[in-house]
Amino acid sequence: MKRLPLGYFPFSAIGIVLLWTTVFGCRDIMTTNDPKETFLNTTVTLIVSLSPVNASALMPGQSAIITGTIHDTNHYSGVTVVSSTLTGLNASDFTILGNSIFHLQINAMDSATFQMRFTPLKLGYVSAILTVNADSNNISATDTMQYYVGVGSLSLRDTAINFGFVQTDSSLSKSLVITNTGLSPVRIHNMYYAGSDSGSFGYNVIPQLSCPFTLQPSGKFTFQLQFNPFSQGAHSTSLIIAADSLPAVFMYLTGIGANNGMALQPDPILFAYHDTNTSRTIAYDTLYDFNLDTSYRHVDSIKVQSNQGDSALFTVIGSFPVAIQPPTGPNPANGVMYPVAIIRFNGVPAVAPHYGYLQVYFREAPGVPVLVPLVGGPF
């Protein structure tokens, strides 16, 4: 009898492999490099965020509603919330309303909300921890709640002040109002600057007060803040207000010591965006030099820097050097605004702003750049 070739027989080893591959695919034989397949094996991440509460306006027994949001950061699968727990010193002060969180469905890359009732049982510091558990590989997320109930609360009209460009031989003042928006008096025991540039900043308190002093409910006082730069370039510091039974209040102050009237505008350059549904947002602004000199001056180059790795998001568009003409006409004392370059922000939507700054090099001040802060939204 004639022997048939091995490949002819339909149930040979090769035939079995080919049949298996055709029917079931190659999942169990070959390793896939599909990025989606790889990502599905990664850990799902949940993020819990809670709405703010003015706990200083509450008294024991009074209630406030807290809205919570749970975010699913996985690109390809959603989750279901199966349980939640409240732990910590004051867990009994918090109640999740109804079934607003139980079996809460959250789609991939989406969020869902729930509500809690906050009813403090005592004055002073209150804390608890919320833990949310999902059905996907025992994934959980936590958020720590900390409030000061029925005590005074210091409110700032501004949380940051930028003095802009100030000549190194002059001073600029700005006011800051602080109000006690709580129900009880606040005893302020210290106010001070912290930072290496603190020597460029000063303040006076109106009315004249010296620590310690007490600020009654609805009471207010005014800081008269001064910026007197001792050198060229950027300066910054933090004004810290320390009060009894309250976390310290911080005010961030910045300014730039100018050289020979060199003042770039706008300062800072702010790029706001609000559409978080697009992958990128591009915005433009024009940088001007405000020339008060009696002769030409020149911008030889502009560099972008960032202390948090955002420099690639900002681009300088222009050719250098740029000659800025002196003011002319009937009112030369008013100076002249001259366009220097276009600044582009090519950012990605995020929950926090992107920061950088320009180093603008003038020929007339070699080696000493003028700094312009850059901030890309959201705001």
Spell out the key features of this protein:
single chain; 379 residues; mainly beta; Immunoglobulin-like; 4 domains; 5-stranded mixed β-sheet; 2 helices; 26 strands; disordered N terminus
Structure description:
The structure is a single chain. The strands form six sheets. A five-stranded mixed sheet has the order 10-17-16-12-14, with no helix packed on it. It has helices spanning 13-24, 35-40; strands at 46-50, 64-72, 79-87, 94-96, 105-106, 111-118, 124-134, 140-149, 154-156, 160-167, 172-180, 186-194, 201-206, 213-215, 220-227, 233-243, 249-258, 263-265, 269-271, 281-291, 297-305, 314-317, 322-324, 336-347, 354-362, 370-376. It contains two helices and 26 strands. Helices cover 5% and strands 49% of the residues. A hairpin with a 5-residue loop joins strand 7 and strand 8 (140-149). The longest helix is centred in the N-terminal third of the chain and has 12 residues, at 13-24. The chain is mainly beta. The chain has four domains: 6-40, no CATH class; 46-149, Immunoglobulin-like (Sandwich), CATH 2.60.40.10; 154-258, Immunoglobulin-like; 263-376, Immunoglobulin-like.
Task: Give a quick summary of the entry.
This protein is mostly beta strands.
What is the secondary structure topology, with strand pairs?
Blueprint: H1 13-24, H2 35-40, E1 46-50, E2 64-72, E3 79-87, E4 94-96, E5 105-106, E6 111-118, E7 124-134, E8 140-149, E9 154-156, E10 160-167, E11 172-180, E12 186-194, E13 201-206, E14 213-215, E15 220-227, E16 233-243, E17 249-258, E18 263-265, E19 269-271, E20 281-291, E21 297-305, E22 314-317, E23 322-324, E24 336-347, E25 354-362, E26 370-376
Parallel strand pairs: 10-17, 19-26
Antiparallel strand pairs: 1-2, 2-6, 3-5, 3-7, 4-6, 7-8, 9-11, 11-15, 12-14, 12-16, 13-15, 16-17, 18-20, 20-24, 21-23, 21-25, 22-24, 25-26
